[in-house]
């Protein structure tokens, strides 16, 4: 049987094949066997993956807006944000180089853009505009290299391996900043909880679509660390920044 044996409208076939690739399309929409377990896992993974990618376009927008409205990046660790940006970028470059399905890493692109904006705003409102411009320019240059055919695959493997520690370390820095200030400062509750839920979902999609131990371990640690920060948001809810403790 083939795709033309189904009653699914022709204009929907290509879209449905994104969610049910290979023989799974025939299994679902030609044989109408919707209980095929392997295909169900692929379908759920694809839905989660593309859902995460769609959500990633707005996941850090609340954080950006909060910094912009407050005209302050107080309480946000630039070092932590930078480490997070390195981790996101490593996942993006590693996934692209290994030709993993785009649904397994695609959100890294939009998260990288939004994270670099956050870093720039932190510098901007600290009256370090020149440093902000240099920061963003250097990042764009680095990504141009990492996504080019000239980059050694071994370098990307090292970066992804280091990403396991960078991801957790960057979050631990932010968690420590929150503890030290007895406040979560300008952290956005929407952004933090979306990142937490997204990283949890990525554990399943990574197992299903890549099987790469390093990628899976990265998201397991990210989920734990994002969960810690999410808990701090509840614990320090509406607590003002403790300037005395900070000094």
From TrEMBL:
UniProt-recorded name of the protein: Mannose-P-dolichol utilization defect 1 protein homolog
Domain of life: Eukaryota
Record PANTHER family: MANNOSE-P-DOLICHOL UTILIZATION DEFECT 1 LEC35 -RELATED, MANNOSE-P-DOLICHOL UTILIZATION DEFECT 1 PROTEIN
Keyword Ribosomal protein: no
SMART domains hit by this protein: CTNS (SM00679)
Membrane-spanning intervals of the chain: 48-68, 75-96, 108-126, 138-166, 186-204, 216-237
Annotated family: Belongs to the MPDU1 (TC 2.A.43.3) family.
Native organism: Candidula unifasciata
Membrane topology: Multi-pass membrane protein
């Amino acid at each position: 049987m083939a795709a033309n044996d189904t009653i699914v409208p022709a204009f929907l076939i290509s879209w449905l094949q994104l969610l049910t690739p290979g023989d799974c399309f025939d299994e679902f929409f030609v044989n109408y066997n919707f209980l095929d377990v392997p295909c169900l896992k692929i379908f759920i993974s694809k839905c989660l993956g593309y859902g995460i990618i769609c959500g990633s376009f707005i996941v850090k927008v609340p954080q950006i807006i909060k910094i912009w409205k407050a005209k302050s990046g107080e309480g946000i660790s630039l070092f932590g944000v930078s480490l997070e940006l390195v981790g996101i970028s490593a996942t993006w470059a590693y996934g692209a180089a290994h030709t993993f399905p785009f649904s397994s890493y695609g959100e890294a692109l939009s998260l990288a853009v939004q994270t670099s904006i956050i870093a720039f705003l932190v510098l901007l409102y600290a009256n370090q505009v020149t440093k902000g411009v240099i920061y963003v320019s250097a990042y764009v240059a680095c990504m141009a290299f990492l996504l080019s055919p000239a980059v050694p695959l071994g370098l990307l493997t090292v970066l992804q391996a280091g990403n396991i520690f960078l991801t957790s370390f960057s979050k631990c820095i932010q968690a420590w900043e929150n503890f030290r200030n007895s406040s979560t400062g300008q952290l956005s509750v929407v952004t933090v909880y979306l990142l937490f839920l997204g990283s949890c979902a990525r554990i399943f999609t990574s197992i299903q679509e890549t099987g790469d131990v390093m990628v899976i371990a990265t998201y397991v640690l990210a989920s734990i660390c994002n969960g810690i920060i999410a808990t701090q948001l509840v614990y320090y809810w509406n607590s003002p920044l403790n300037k005395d403790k900070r000094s």
